[in-house]
């Protein structure tokens, strides 16, 4: 969106509908905009191909509102992760085009619906309790312009549930596998397909799951090669899946 906005601005300067002075005031804020509490990185999409995403936890409603306004002034979409219900709903009231996915804890404004990924990203969860992390991955993947589908509650405790969806699994270009407990699902999937599998351990599980460490260690020691992300980091997996899907 930022690249398109710059091109539109240059065209308006060319036609005379925007003065050089007004254009200068807009362009000077492109590298970053200093809000005192936050330095909004408007230039990131030009450098990296993917715009800045805001980590919401620990930020106030006013700070998040100012960040959202800054991004919108530069014609950028908005994705804020790790929000509670109260702040997510409050942002929706302030921004008419905003959507809050409560399960994912993500607020977003998305007007550019162009599909830029080359294939399907499939988000798979071992259990229903893992869906919170899986939904963060799903929202992020969709936000970044990927065709994305969900396949939930197909963990190894009932392996027939997974095998019943092999056609869909084989159709994916990248798979994000989210699992808590013993964390076996990513290794199983990676043993069935030649697709890149991004493994996300979750903090779901009983005592010796150690807040997700057991699943993390299992994935790091997977017999079938997978790429492993931090505990509960659905966002990071979806970001990396996007990079793969654009190659």
Write structural notes for this entry:
The protein is α/β, with parallel strands linked by helices. It has two domains: 2-109, no CATH class; 120-245, Rossmann fold, CATH 3.40.50.1970. The protein is built from eleven helices and eleven strands. The protein has a five-stranded parallel β-sheet with strand order 8-7-9-10-11. A four-stranded mixed β-sheet has the order 3-4-6-5, with helices on both faces. The chain has a two-stranded antiparallel ribbon with strand order 1-2. Strand 3, helix 4 (61-73) and strand 4 form a beta-alpha-beta unit. The two termini are 20 Å apart. 38% of the residues are buried.
What is the helical fraction, as a range of percent? Answer: 40-55%
- Calculate Rg over CA atoms: 20 Å
CATH second-level architecture of the largest domain: 3-Layer(aba) Sandwich
Instruction: Spell the H/E element sequence.
Output: HHEEHEHEHEEEHEHHEHEHEH
Q: Estimate the global geometry from the Cα principal axes.
A: elongated
| CATH fold topology of the largest domain | Rossmann fold
Largest sheet geometry: 5 strands, parallel
Spatial ordering of strands, largest sheet? 8-7-9-10-11
Number of helices: 11
